Recover the amino acids of this structure.
């Protein structure tokens, strides 16, 4: 559906995107993951035609933006990082305007209002709406004209947990019918809805895989965080004695008289029950025990270490 | 383009901007009309229109400052520029919407000659040239204001620059082209935006004056389009 070839964007001497190429297949949900400032929004702004690239090409269904901008733009619904809404208009007035500039009939508005569940606020001024509702108005705007491709830039950023769940539901509904390209800097966000993930860092694509494979890349290590109440030598004696533990690191005092450890278990070994019994047997206590969350940073460190070799 | 015009008018009227603009222009116009026509028992409507342009120095930015600057600061330009609509349609739509608000205030001011008609014989030809000249002058200033709004993201900066530029142009209009340097004289001649109004004031339509105003309107609209297109590339 989208075909991006050798895209480069420079601001002066600063290279924001460095020769990136990828494709988005028709019907898939592609996640675009990267830390802030990695070039996610820039890429999306170029694909949607908001800014132009320094070099490289973007085609949608074989149409280059340079050749036929109108036909090209009709294929895309775009929700930028900030929903592009006019605060001094009502939801209805705003969507009528969007229909106007996208050159389509206003009869589609009612269906869209239902789809993103904002029918009840359609006559309110957008400035009086909460952030979650504004975001939904932003999605509604992207849906006008029934584009085959939706590009959503950090659709859940800045929302409260309830709103995030709401928006995520709306997105997975949309994903059944359309091709989606979603950016985020949170892995769990992306892995919940996406078929495939691209990871971008410092303007370069560093990985491209399914969310499961990416997570496995890091979680294969079986890491746990534990807070144990006891003396250091006693705890470490127990940890060293367990056969399932590959190694451990003391992260210091987390709470009075307690120590925090990161424990790396051997592949496939489930150390949890054994650890619990051994610690209890020595009259010590585990106050906290959880698997170590895979963060985006971990993936980056793993990936850059693999790709960069001796660079760092 | 219709969608853009409609949207701009909606925002003008959903906020106090349109109301304040029309109210101030008509209010000042009516005060001038009362003093120079009613009290002075004169039917020469031109006096009102020769003084009223000074109100533009403050009122033009009210109408134009947010046109492009606000789209940029609120990021709503991301909607406009990614929609299947051309930049020129956006800019012309915005300019026409501002001109419609200005046109409404002028239409209200048509009551002055109608009131005068009750007391004396009004020279409707001169009335027409005055209204036409006033509209062309105002439209030129609005086009300049629109362009200045595209230079910055901050609408108050746009407003202040617009006031400064218009004030400078109005002051230059009172200079004579007698510096002795041909280039400087030509430049002053070009900048004398309110002097071009003098012909209309006395009842003449001078083709060069009409073309002068028309080209200012078009040139600054084109500069605005160019400016927005250019920023995409940056």
């Amino acid at each position: 559906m989208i075909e991006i070839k050798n895209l480069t964007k420079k601001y002066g001497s600063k290279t924001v995107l460095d020769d990136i190429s990828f494709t988005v297949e028709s019907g898939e949900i592609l996640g675009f993951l990267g830390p802030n400032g990695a070039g996610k929004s820039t890429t999306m702004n170029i694909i949607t035609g908001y800014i132009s690239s320094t070099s490289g090409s973007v085609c949608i269904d074989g149409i280059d933006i340079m050749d036929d901008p109108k036909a090209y733009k009709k294929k895309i619904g775009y929700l930028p990082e900030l929903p592009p809404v006019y605060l001094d208009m009502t939801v209805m007035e705003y969507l009528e305007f969007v229909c106007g500039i996208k050159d389509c009939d206003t009869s589609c508005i009612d269906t869209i209002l239902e789809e993103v569940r904002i029918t009840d606020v359609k006559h309110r001024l957008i400035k009086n709406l909460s952030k979650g509702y504004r975001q939904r108005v932003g999605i509604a705007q992207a849906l006008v004209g029934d584009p085959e491709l939706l590009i959503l830039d950090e659709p859940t950023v800045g929302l409260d947990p309830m709103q995030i769940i709401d928006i995520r539901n709306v997105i997975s509904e949309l994903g059944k019918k359309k091709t989606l390209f979603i950016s985020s800097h949170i892995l769990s966000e992306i892995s919940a809805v996406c078929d495939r993930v691209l990871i971008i860092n410092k303007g370069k694509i560093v990985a491209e895989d399914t969310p499961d494979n990416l997570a496995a890349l890091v979680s294969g290590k079986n890491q746990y965080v534990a807070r144990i109440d006891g003396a250091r030598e006693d705890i470490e004696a127990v940890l060293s004695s367990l056969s399932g533990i590959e190694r451990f690191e003391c992260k210091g005092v987390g709470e009075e008289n307690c120590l925090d450890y990161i424990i790396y278990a051997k592949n496939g070994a489930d150390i949890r029950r054994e650890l619990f019994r051994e610690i209890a047997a020595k009259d010590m206590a585990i106050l906290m025990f959880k698997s170590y969350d895979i963060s985006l940073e971990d993936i980056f460190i793993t990936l850059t270490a693999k790709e960069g070799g001796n660079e760092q | 383009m219709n969608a853009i015009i409609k949207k701009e008018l909606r925002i003008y009227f959903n906020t106090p901007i349109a109301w304040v603009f029309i109210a101030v222009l008509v209010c000042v116009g009516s005060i001038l009309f009362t003093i120079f026509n009613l009290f002075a028992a004169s039917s020469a409507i031109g006096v009102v229109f020769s003084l009223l342009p000074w109100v533009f120095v403050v009122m033009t930015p009210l109408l134009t400052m947010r046109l492009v600057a606000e789209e940029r600061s609120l990021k709503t330009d991301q909607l406009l520029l990614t929609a299947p609509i051309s930049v020129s349609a956006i800019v012309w739509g915005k300019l026409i919407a501002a001109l419609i608000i200005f046109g409404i205030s002028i239409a209200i001011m048509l009551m002055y000659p109608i009131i005068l008609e009750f007391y004396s014989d009004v020279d409707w030809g001169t009335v027409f040239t005055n209204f036409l000249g006033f509209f062309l002058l105002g439209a030129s200033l609005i086009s300049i204001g629109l362009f200045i709004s595209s230079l910055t993201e901050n609408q108050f900066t746009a407003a202040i620059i617009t006031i400064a530029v218009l004030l400078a142009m109005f002051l230059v209009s009172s200079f004579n082209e007698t510096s002795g340097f041909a280039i400087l004289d030509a430049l002053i001649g070009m900048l004398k935006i309110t002097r071009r109004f003098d012909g209309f004031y006395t009842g003449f339509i001078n083709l060069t004056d009409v073309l002068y105003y028309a080209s200012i309107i078009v040139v600054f609209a084109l500069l605005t389009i160019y400016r927005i297109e250019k920023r995409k590339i940056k």
